[in-house]
What we know:
Shape of chain B: globular
Shape of chain A: elongated
Distance between the termini of chain B: 21 Å
Largest interface: A-B, 37 and 39 residues
Distance between the termini of chain A: 32 Å
Oligomer: heterodimer
Number of domains of chain A: 1
Order of helices and strands of chain A: HHHHHH
Number of helices of chain A: 6
Radius of gyration of chain B: 24 Å
Amino acid sequence: MTHAAPSPAMAHPTSMGIDNRKMAFWAFIGSECLLFGSLISTYLVYKGKSVVGPYPHDILNIPLTSGSTFDLLMSSLMMVLALAAVQRGNMKWGKIWLFSTALLGLVFLGAQVMEFTEFVHKGLTISTNLFGCTFFVLTGTHGAHVAVGVLWLLTLWVRALQGKLGSANATTVEITGLYWHFVDVVWIVIFTVVYLIQ
Amino acid sequence: MVAQDAHAHAGPQGFIRKYVFSLDHKVIGLQYFFLALAAVFVGMFLSLLMRIHLIWPTAVLPLVGAIKPETYLSLLTMHGTIMVFFVLTTAPQGGFGNYFLPIQIGAADMAFPVLNMLSFWVTFLAFLVLLGAFFVQGGAPLHGWTGYPPLSALQSAGTGQGLGADLWVVSIALFCVGALMSALNFITTTLDMRAKGMSMMRMPLTCWAWFITAILGLLAFGVLFSAGILLLLDRNAGTSFFVPLVVVNGQVAAHKGGSPLLWQHLFWFFGHPEVYILILPAMGIVSEVLPTFARKPLFGYTVIVYSGVLIGFMGWGVWSHHMFAVGLGPIADSAFAATTMLIAIPTGVKIFNWIATLWGGDIRGTTALFFAVGFIAMFIIGGLSGVSHASPPADLQQTDTYYVVAHFHYVLFGGSVLGLFAGIYYWWPKMTGRLLNEPLGKWHFWLQLVGMNLAFFPMHLIGLLGMPRRVYTYAPELGVGALNLVSTIGAFLIAVSILVFLFNVWRSARHGQIAPNDPWGGATLEWSIPSPPPAYNFSVIPTVTSRMPRWQTEHHQPMQDPPAGPPAPIHVPGGSRWPLVAACGLPVMALSVLTHTLWVVFLGAAILLFAIYRWAFEPLEG
């Protein structure tokens, strides 16, 4: 994670020297770990317990998901570049990278919609079997997090277009980045657990 | 007061702006407090109905009529849910924590005032949603506060398992969201907002307790939230996370081979840390009340801090002791029995520290001290019966009997509630500016202590004699009739003691003696400021040089109280209505699950988003 200089927007020094919002956000990520932890455990507990098909290896489209995983990883790179640009006060590139991060997030969501639609056509819904239950809830919850992140990034982008986001708000962008990288890391775990491990 | 107001912004005026939309941590603390007070009346009323029914099973009661077996089940479900979540999670943490954490660490407010208000409103709406379960078709759910599936997962499992159970799950999920936001606020405030010189190891033990409780809440409520979502999907979207092969009314229920055990693991992985969420703040209060009234520093401050941290840590490794009857196998049973016995050690350490604090002290027998000592005595009884559950063979005899009910009422009523009242009698003058009447307080204490022992002690015997919990009746030949009668008399005695307390409150409001800044000679920062505290808390943020800043010790002089008025006007944030609007978005989103319509989700999300944007991008009024 990047180490920003203390933001000038910080009203007064804190006991630990860390911006309050950043502190709270790290704590929030702790809570999110437990939320995703429960859902991933649920997936693992029911892995291979489906009594009717379709089963995971009949239906998972690994090339497509590998592509969208690469896309999400690249979006994290864009996020790093966006933060670096905003911290330098280079808002031209700040805007470009923020928008690219959101765009790659949207591409990931598009791929997920395609995947879900294809599964439903092949007969796997949330109520078909235990794989359907656990798969849709786990990846759907992650998708909802990506959607919130895209909305957040687009909000920052619009604020930047309006000239209301500058290097003074670097901490805001940094916290957005914390969220985005966290969502990315969760996907690495999900991709490994659901798609890669047979 | 007039002189101070001339120097500072007086804070929002008018009832609505001051008490509904305020961002002041003290007002939000009071809001949580009144929410818990409303909840405790509902919860107590339900428990009295159950006690009446166990003695006079055919009685026709006003307002509720005759109690049918399913009514009895819904009474106990709602009693447990209301008491655990909306009273004992809410009052000590949301109420006292919000009010006193910033003051005790020398801060002007919590780290995030708007988020604070939002967590209160979400919790408040969660309570309304829960109460709604009484009024929908089928009535309140029957599945107990633990919501075990398959009963809780199937709409067809009984009356009350339809819409009522959906509202129950939604309420719990909303409560998780509120508690999570509150936890973020507590953690950040404790770590980041301390006054100069207030190191972590100089914080009062109440602050440590709220801090550890917040960390437990932060992690535990995330698990309960996801479990709640899975349960909601099982009930409404045809999934089968918790539904096994089960026959309801002669019909095989739709299922895909899920397991109700998964719910038990998720629930208790939350549920055991929740037990410490309920008790740690009470332990913190006792650790503050005892030194004040023994006029002696707390014995072994550091050890109590580390015991609290250890309890918070080990609390995550004992959850399966709630599930010994499931048959997890000898290895899992032994491991969880061992961790459960181990966690009794830090608790025992605390108890010896408290007794050592009293030992040789210059004790003043105030009501607050009576409640704190009552806490120690009753918590020991509850702790001992708790250790007896730690052994799986003994636990198998006790599971689902009244013995368990006796145990958790000794720790939650004898522990949390007595601790809460110790805090109420201790801080009442600070919060209201008036003293409570001490003789009436003693009446309250003795009635409550005798009442709770009459109500809950016989339950140990009732349970060991074989009466199962959560059952609306018992056979006369079981020989538990007289014991049940004693228990019911005890329950009414508790109700009488609460009436005495309410009379004391009313009397204090009308004729109570005006409280000075420091009626008890306390060592901590809250006693250095006026009673009730001004909107800005400290006219000058203090610099702390010791763990007991207001007491003289071998190494330092007592601190000087802040001046009566601030040297320069202090800006006090006004109110905001956006937290309330944002909070309303969440139950609207949840309604979509009940109505099975998608656009309601988007409506709720739009309300939420709109309010968050207004809150994030607009300056606060006033």
